[in-house]
Amino acid sequence: MNVSITCTDPAIKATIRDHVSRLMLWAPKDHMHITVYESIMDDKEYGTDNGPTDGCMGCTSGLKQDHMALYLDQIEKVRSKAVELPSPTWFMPVSEHIDALIYVLTHEWGHGVDPAPWSMLDTPMAQMFLDTTREYWINDAGCPTHFSDYGMTGYREGWAEAFVEWHMSYGHTESDVARWFANRYGWYSFK
Ligand SMILES: [Zn+2]
């Protein structure tokens, strides 16, 4: 395992390191580099290409999804409720009980351990795989309850949102979709 963290604030770095050690137990990953930015605009790769995207608190990139960026200014806006979310159920229920930084970190880690083929994202076959799988879990779970509207925006976001809900509630979730993912992918059972 090789997880590195670039962060100028020692307290935030320690918080991240502590939570990563937990994530590594639940869903190990060979390599991850985490860069913490004061502002999303400091991320030349993201800030310049996409502009000051409101609501984007973090992202995961790289062929093996092993580069994570976290944006403290965006996280603080959500934490302090300085921005109005698109809907009251934009985030998963567990977001009421954990800090926004931990929520985003866990969500992005979820992207990092998603087994779907990122390198094939733009091929028709990959898209078909994603569409089919997404339809399958929605049908299987029936009408999703206790699932975030953000998670419904696409299969990958659904995976990451379910990952947060399951792990941060220690499996004690009412979300049928989070339970479906946990069961299907053998997520940690917290027994
Ligand atoms: Zn995401």
Can you characterise this structure?
The structure is a single chain. The protein has 191 residues and is an alpha/beta fold. The chain has a single domain (2-185), classed as Collagenase (Catalytic Domain), CATH 3.40.390. Helices cover 46% and strands 11% of the residues. It has a four-stranded mixed beta sheet. The radius of gyration is 16 Å and the shape is globular. The protein starts with a strand and ends in a 6-residue tail after the last helix. The mean pLDDT is 85. The chain binds zinc ion (ZN).
Keywords:
191 residues, alpha/beta, binds zinc ion, 4 strands, four-stranded mixed sheet, 7 helices, Collagenase (Catalytic Domain)
Strand order of the largest sheet: 1-2-4-3
How many separate structural domains? Answer: 1
Say what the CATH topology is: Collagenase (Catalytic Domain)
Write down the CATH class: Alpha Beta
The CATH architecture would be 3-Layer(aba) Sandwich
What is the topology?
Blueprint: E1 2-6, H1 10-26, E2 31-37, H2 44-50, E3 58-61, E4 67-71, H3 72-79, H4 100-112, H5 124-141, H6 155-168, H7 176-185
Parallel strand pairs: 1-2, 2-4
Antiparallel strand pairs: 3-4
Helix pairs in contact: 1-4, 4-6, 5-7, 6-7
The structure holds zinc ion.
Summarize the structure.
The chain is of the alpha/beta class and 191 residues long. It contains 7 helices and 4 strands; from the N terminus they run E-H-E-H-E-E-H-H-H-H-H. The chain has one domain: Collagenase (Catalytic Domain) (3-Layer(aba) Sandwich), CATH 3.40.390.
